[in-house]
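note to self: the first set is below, dont mix up w the second
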Amino acid sequence: MKLRGIPTFVFAAAAALLFFRLPFLVFEKAPLDYMLYINQKIFYYHVPAAMMMFLAVFVCGVASVLFLVKRDPKFDDVALAAGDLVVTFGLIVLVTGPIWAKAAWGVPWVWEARLTQSLLLWMIFVAYALVRRYGGAGSERLASGLALFGMVNVPMVYFAVNFWKTQHPTNKVVPNLRGAMLSVFGTATLSYFLLFLVLLSVRLAVGRGQRRLAAAHDLAVENGHLD
């Protein structure tokens, strides 16, 4: 498998090295937050995961549109791979968020706008994955509709802190990072992005292999080689 001509294992090795180094940067280089103390460190895992979740949503949504327009299976393969990544990174977001919330708010979960919208987005793509696996013939088009609905929901998640009064931090936190906090956050984001590329490449290869295998099976049945 290759990404732009570069073997996937190169990206995988780079991601592994960065993730190995990341805890040292987070706990040694990045300064402590004066209010949350060491609990703030989860920020360097939570926010990049949310960014990759949003990226996966847009990849899935755009690929779904292209599939609906062109009916080319290669776009459907990309959408399916990205849809699984939304579930994966979304789960990381939903696990790390309550850890931070418990320290900041005293409770791991509140039904405020951003948290509720994030959970809804994740559930949309869980439904997407279930439709793809158990929906039968024509599930690709139905799932594409779910992907588009999920993509439309992303701005609602991101701007929820602007539209409603919420307990969640505003969107100004990342732009206001400075010094060591910014450099560590950049490293964390790069680590997650490389992981995103590797997982997308591997899942895409698996999906295309499954499609070729299914086509070979159907051809064998058609020719009477299999029952």
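second set (the one i keep forgetting abt)
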Amino acid sequence: MRGYVANRSSGGGAAVSVERIDIAGDPPVRGVLHPAASSGADGLVLTHGAGGNADAALLVAVAEAFSARGVAVLRSDLPYRQARPRGGPSPSGAARDREGLRAALRVLRERVSGRLFLGGHSYGGRQASMLLAAEPALASALLLQSYPLHPPGRPRDLRIAHLPDLRVPTLFVSGTADPFGSLAELDKARELIPGRTAMLAVSGGHDLGWSGKRRDATLPGRIAEAFLELAGPS
């Protein structure tokens, strides 16, 4: 693979080493791999919301929770974030962001031989859901953290056109006070999805309560366990 750069580092205590990934391509893949103990493990590509990046605190914690349960995780920066460190995505670049997720899945496939999963927070989750609605064979299950069902204050502008084509098991993780979609609105949207779905409701807003200092430390583990239960045994 051209442009491959890997720097291994480890945190304190019993933290498992992670590997920084930077692979040239069109689009390129950049992120951090939390490896699994076995090459036969399942793997998850996990990406960020519109204003963040792959180093968002909740994404890191969720990746660590999956890794602790034997799933390799590639936290991946979307192409728009690789192009510029700040600012949100452009609608004209959404297709390229989905191609970035496809490329990240290819990179992870070279590391694990088990099932592949895909997920993301807000915008990243929406792009992941659109990709799997179009190509369900790319991943076996989908994780949607804070799915942006509609813009705040515009409940009629629903982002649901692709949901009837979404056939993979899908876990929604949503805050009880999320202005991008209430739990009731999301439950109605879930009815459009022919695949199995589940909802993990979290006390908080679009950040799932993780933008401040008072965070629910149990949430990442609960997300991982609920997702793996929905995905079922390999």
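remember for set 2: The chain has one domain: 27-231.
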